[in-house]
């Protein structure tokens, strides 16, 4: 059972990212402020929720959250600043967009770059412990999946509609056969040295 909040006094936002370990595409992050008494039987870490239920939850979260926002950092910036910094930057951009200013941040994971002077707590596996972080994980995951489905149309050979940019066997095989494209993260060293970059 997820906890509805970490503390009762301050307005808290849960933050999480999706796509940190992918070979291709942006990293997405979401920030969500839920009512203190919010609960839903399906809500959990997005990795524990099937696709149909994730999209059902997204609608409920967007209707019932006091505030929410989603942001992303593209693969080129990931290659420039590294994936960890890109994940934190995407969280900061999402927090920037919240129409209610949070007084505390709950961050999924064990590290974070402080956001302004807002206090934060890092929560290992927080998306399975706190409703606001779980809600953020659902939004980040579904928005990122939608993006990957869109760019799949441009480069269908990588099967992003199914693997969402993760390093699955079919994705790795497609990279071996076609090289990489403009959406791949070159800093991840996913390309065998003898292959040339697949350009437009």
Automatic annotation (TrEMBL):
Binding site for a divalent metal cation: 16-17, 108
Record-level Gene Ontology MF annotations: RNA-DNA hybrid ribonuclease activity
Reaction catalysed by this enzyme: Endonucleolytic cleavage to 5'-phosphomonoester
Localization in the cell: Cytoplasm
Cofactor(s) essential for the protein: Mg(2+); Mn(2+)
Enzyme Commission code: 3.1.26.4
Co-factor remark: Manganese or magnesium. Binds 1 divalent metal ion per monomer in the absence of substrate. May bind a second metal ion after substrate binding.
Lineage: Bacteria, Pseudomonadati, Bacteroidota, Chitinophagia, Chitinophagales
The organism's place on the tree of life at top rank: Bacteria
Name of the featured protein: Ribonuclease HII
Function: Endonuclease that specifically degrades the RNA of RNA-DNA hybrids.
Biological source species: Terrimonas rubra
Name of one Pfam family that matches: RNase_HII
Main location group: cytoplasm
Name of the coding gene: rnhB
Boundaries of every RNase H type-2 domain copy: 10-200
Keyword Membrane: no
Family the UniProt entry places it in: Belongs to the RNase HII family.
